Amino acid sequence: MKNTYLLTLLMLIFCVATVRISYAHGGEKHEKKKTETTVVKAETADTAQVPQTAQDTAKAQPHAPAATEHTEAHEHTPSEVHASLSDFPNTHPLIVHFPIMLLMVAAAVLLVNIRFLSKELNWVATVATLIGFGTAYLAANYNHPHTSGLTAHAQLVLDQHDLYAEWTVYLGAVGVVVQLLSHFLFKGKRWSVAVAALVLTGSAYAVSMAGHYGAQLVHIEGVGPQGKYLEEHHH
């Protein structure tokens, strides 16, 4: 019985101590929150003064640049930021990505199809080859920009770009003929698929190198952005 009373007394003491500790800890948290709230209010008050300070700065500097028309158009009518074809210095960058992608796809599909000899894959390769060659021809002959005022190094890069672009078109034309013969005349024989794959792999390599030198011209030599070094800004 004594043990029961003693255990009950110890439990009561433990509960009271726990309540007191919790109350004290809660008070500390309340004080902390109160302090944090005070700091937040102070920061908010400082922030609220920023616009007034900015206005004062604008008054002190009457010649500060205003927002551009592009920014204003985006804020009021987002559709106005969509550029039309006539806004581009040249449409070459809008077309050239098609042969880069499609000729590589055609080569990859034919390399895989040497193993499987799938009619469906053969059709994919044929369509990709036709569109890839067609867009490569357009990009190289009708949408290729004319340049002026290039540095000597930029001219060397452009020469390499044009060289690989020409090889892309030549090998793409041969690839179209070989792939059509393989598809319709030889009915997808393994050897004909292999020949078409070899030719289009060469065209894919050429277009990848042309793309490399094209990216070098734009992003390193600065040729093309906003019509820089281009003779004709609109086509």
Our count of helices gives: 7
Low-confidence stretches: 1-12, 16-42, 44-55, 57-67
Query: What summary fits the major beta sheet?
Result: none
Strand count: 0
Portion of residues in beta strands equals under 5%
Radius of gyration: 36 Å
Order of helices and strands: HHHHHHH
N- to C-terminal distance: 105 Å
Backbone structural class? mainly alpha
The best one-word shape is elongated
How much is the average pLDDT? 78
Q: Which range best describes the helical content: under 10%, 10-25%, 25-40%, 40-55%, 55-70% or over 70%? A: over 70%
Could you give a quick summary of the protein structure above?
The chain is mostly helical.
Q: What is the secondary structure topology, with strand pairs?
A:
Blueprint: H1 2-60, H2 69-76, H3 92-95, H4 97-116, H5 119-141, H6 152-185, H7 190-219
Helix pairs in contact: 4-5, 4-7, 5-6, 6-7
Q: What does this protein structure show overall?
A:
The protein has 235 residues and is mainly α. 76% of the residues lie in helices and 0% in strands. The protein has helices at residues 2-60, 69-76, 92-95, 97-116, 119-141, 152-185, 190-219. Residues 1-12, 16-42, 44-55 and 57-67 have low confidence and may be disordered.
Which features would summarize this protein structure in a list?
single chain, mainly alpha, disordered N terminus, 7 helices, 235 residues
